[in-house]
Amino acid sequence: MTDTTTQTAEHDIADALCEQVKKAHAKRTPLRIVGADTRAFYGRPVEGEPLNIAEHSGIVHYDPVELVVTVRAGTPISALEAALAEHNQMLAFEPPRFGAASTIGGAVATGLSGPRRPWAGAVRDFVLGSHVITQEGKLLRFGGEVMKNVAGYDMSRLMAGAQGTLGVLADISFKVLPKPTASHSLKLSLPLSDALKKLAELGRQPLPITAAAWHDGELFLRLEGGKSSINATRDRLGGEALDADFWRELRDLEHAFFTQNNDKALWRLSLPPNTPPLALDIPESDIFYDWAGSQRFVKTSLDAETLRQACQHAGGHATCYTPAAYGGAADPFTPLNPVVEKYHRNLKAELDAHGIFNPGRLYAAF
């Protein structure tokens, strides 16, 4: 493989996708955008004609020297990461998969990042540009030299986390990073209060930490960087060696915490750094602290309003991962305040006038 590679377009079905969108727009037919469907649990269910992007796959262009890759939205994350690994590079936002067939388009659409997120950045921080199928069935390029469209929107980053409600991602360009030269994971036996103090202390120091979690009396840390720095930090912290596969299980919600005793709804609490434990009637064993405590997975039967009020009081928000059909909240995402809702409605009306793209995916009203 040369420094700059271009893959043939044998999996380019953009024209067919554009035609389907064009017809749906004319007939005002709702579309349910689907790739591998591994993230169907995230958000409200969508009723509509399937728009399958899974066949729109393959790496369009990859320049390891410039640390840039452009890939079609239906490309499996595993295939993209394998190609990057040949050049010892990676997607630094560590996208969760939730299944072997998980696509990169789905990763961007949901905007979810893995354990490295607080130290490396979110999905949108690594999106350089994209090709988006608009409501009229046109394939438009955003990003790179064309940073915004005529309406003034940074569409490439706007698509990250929009859940396909504003348009269809066709191709995405990413900034990639070199893989760390060394890595070591460890665990320390610490009660929650001591672990949170420890994390706050470590966060004020220039240490090579790229993941930090706590659960059931144990603090988990991942160190990545130069070998000498890793060794020095490892010797300083001590603890017991931890299998690196732990972070994959946490990333993809495959840890035993997520797969066992699921008689309660699973919630994700997003909170500011160094937020103390919330005043909620939830056993510590039913909480998994990630992102050094800023992301907390909670298994609970508490109602949505109670959880969201506690998070809002702390400056955060709560999202339900369990579908309503299985005992989760009817509205998985925190309701918008009137001002923000107005902007969402205006944006949706401009980019999807007939409401054909994943209607109701984020909120029931649009």
TrEMBL record:
Supply the gene name: glcE
Q: What class of enzyme is it?
A: oxidoreductase
What are the FAD-binding PCMH-type domain coordinates in residue numbering?
A: 1-179
Keyword tags = FAD, Flavoprotein, Oxidoreductase
In short, the EC number is: 1.1.99.14
Asked whether the UniProt record includes Oxidoreductase among its keywords, one would answer yes
Q: Which GO terms label this protein's molecular function in UniProt?
A: FAD binding; glycolate dehydrogenase activity
NCBIfam families reported for this sequence: PRK11282.1
In terms of SUPFAM superfamilies, this protein maps to: FAD-binding/transporter-associated domain-like (SSF56176), FAD-linked oxidases, C-terminal domain (SSF55103)
The organism's place on the tree of life at top rank: Bacteria
Protein's UniProt name: Glycolate oxidase subunit GlcE
